[in-house]
Amino acid sequence: MVNKIVSLEDLKEISFRLKKEGNKIVHCHGVFDLLHIGHIKHFAEAKKKGDILIVTLTSDEFVNKGPNRPAFKIKHRLESISSLEDVDYVAENNWPTAEKTIQIIKPDIYFKGPDYKENEKDVTGNIKKEISSLKKYGGKIEYSKSITFSSSNLINKYSDLYNDDQKKFLKKISSNFDENDFVKSFKKFNDLKILVIGETIIDQYIFCEAIGKSGKEPMLVLRELESKNYLGGAAAVANHLSEFSSNISFLTCIGQDNAYSEFISNNLDKKIKPKYLKKKDSPTILKKRFIDKVSGNKTLGVYSLNDENLEPSQEKVVLNHLKNIKKYDLVIVADYGHGFITKKIANLISKTSSFLSLNAQINSSNSGFHSLNKYSKCDSIIINESELRHEMRSRQGDLRKLMLELSQNHQSNYVVVTRGNKGSLLLNYKKNEFIECPAFASKLVDKVGSGDAMLPILSMSLKSKLNDNVSLWFGSLAAAQSVESISNSKYVDKTEMLKTIQHALK
Predict the structure, then answer these.
(1) Which of 113, 130, 139 shows the shortest CA–CA distance to 15?
(2) Are 250 and 242 in contact (CB under 8 A)?
(3) 252 strand-pairing partners
(4) Phi, psi of 237 (to 5 degrees)
(5) Which of 69, 54, 84, 26 has its CA nearest to residue 499?
(6) Element (H, E) at 299
(7) Are 106 and 27 in contact (CB under 8 A)?
(8) First-to-final CA distance of the chain
């Protein structure tokens, strides 16, 4: 019996030989996460179009259908598809789309489901790219006439991919909105003129292995294996916006020594218009984190920074730059408490912004000294629970009462508190309404950067006056994307978010 499961390299030779022998090749591609009657009918129809049916499957790492997907890993998906009589060969696709694979196989017919016939409805735009690959050598696309069954629908209905809280929340969303509503929402974001303000931070991850205890001192000794730098702080906040808005300005503070100027410039999205202030007698903020390579646990943090406030002359430069702040539809402030945003600057931002969304983070170097108090007014405040309790000087107080008090103190209509795996809580003060959203992250790699991802997406949603449930969900999905990768190594992907939404609501 021929082994149907082959590599793409072998498939190239196989398809070349089969075509030379006069065989007509049909190619199907997809995730095929749960083999069902719809897939079986689809493959049967495809096989009738030619002599040989080849099926390629999206690798696990490229499946973007929401938390905990794929439900079945690539090994099991390959095995299930290969068991079908109509399928001649099956292979794992090594890229996000089938473009390159089509060029390798050069099928006579690329066979897709009827839902792909209207290309515009494909939020990824992949089907257009795949059709382009076909045209390069004269292949053609055909569409199934079979009834479409949804793997996502079946998985959502009969599996435990979502817990009860997630299911309840998604039901609330799906009963009031559909996929087109979310596409329209994202289009609204593109019209926003946005200004991001805050310190730029370099997050350096130093991966190590333990050698053992020092023979001379009571000290653990680590061997450095590799190090990686990631663009963090407000620069990461700006980058997270890059797929959603084409009009982003960025006001930030970096070091006087220019040590990371080139790195920042190379890693800041080219659509973003930056204004750099080089803080006197200061380095660009560098946060080193030493990581055990095996476990992934952080063992030590070493920070290089200057927390002193800007000198009056530099403060004046920033104030002058912000004279035209009213021209922005949305101002997002990520205040990390390292001296860039002084009381005067905060006061100007508070009084003149059309819509101000604020995050003021507490960290090891500013705890006890950093506060929201310098901001007299803002439209939305987005912080975590410990930051809220620190601000309100209440370790045990009722969370909702604290949010109400904070809202009153800062004339803020929206207060959003993130609570890690407990999800997030939103207060709409004008409506006197609280909304809870469960966490949607399927795996936790690194918590660093989750707030940087949630802040801009949620801020755009609130400014655009989206439904509060939808706004909070968008923010949660952005955070979920972030925690699944190290630091800010990956920025919020609009297409991935739309795909997650699309499949979560089936």
Answers:
(1) 139
(2) no
(3) 198, 276
(4) -55, -45
(5) 69
(6) strand 298-304
(7) no
(8) 39
**Beta-ladder partners of 90:** 5, 55
Instruction: Name the residue among 37, 61, 126, 50 with its Cα closest to residue 89.
Output: 50
Strand 356-360 relative to strand 380-384, pairing: parallel
Is 428 in contact with 381 (CB distance < 8 Å)? no
Rg (CA), the chain: 26
Q: Which two tokens stand for residue 382?
A: 């987005």
Which tokens in the block code for residue 8?
């793409």
Instruction: Find the length of the chain.
Output: 506
Residue with tokens 């390579």: 293
Map tokens 């927390």 to a residue: 307
* Distance from C-alpha of 428 to C-alpha of 431, rounded to nearest angstrom: 6
The CA distance from 90 to 28, in Å, is 9
The helix/strand/coil state of 145 is coil
Half-sphere exposure of 326 (CA within 13 A, CB side): 3
234 within 8 A of 197, measured Cβ to Cβ = yes
Is-contact 136 103, C-beta < 8 A?
yes
Q: What is the mean pLDDT of each run of 10 residues along the chain (506 residues)?
A: 84 92 95 87 93 94 77 90 94 90 94 81 78 92 77 59 87 88 89 96 93 85 92 96 95 92 95 96 94 86 92 96 96 94 96 95 71 91 93 91 95 95 95 95 80 95 96 94 85 87 80
Residues 309, 369: Cα–Cα separation, whole Å: 12
pTM of the model: 0.78
Task: Give strand ranges (E) for 336-456.
Answer: 356-360, 380-384, 414-418, 424-428, 433-437
Alpha-carbon gap, residue 194 to 329, rounded angstroms: 6
Q: Which two tokens stand for residue 498?
A: 């739309």
Domains identified in the chain and CATH numbers: 8-160 (3.40.50.620), 181-504 (3.40.1190.20)
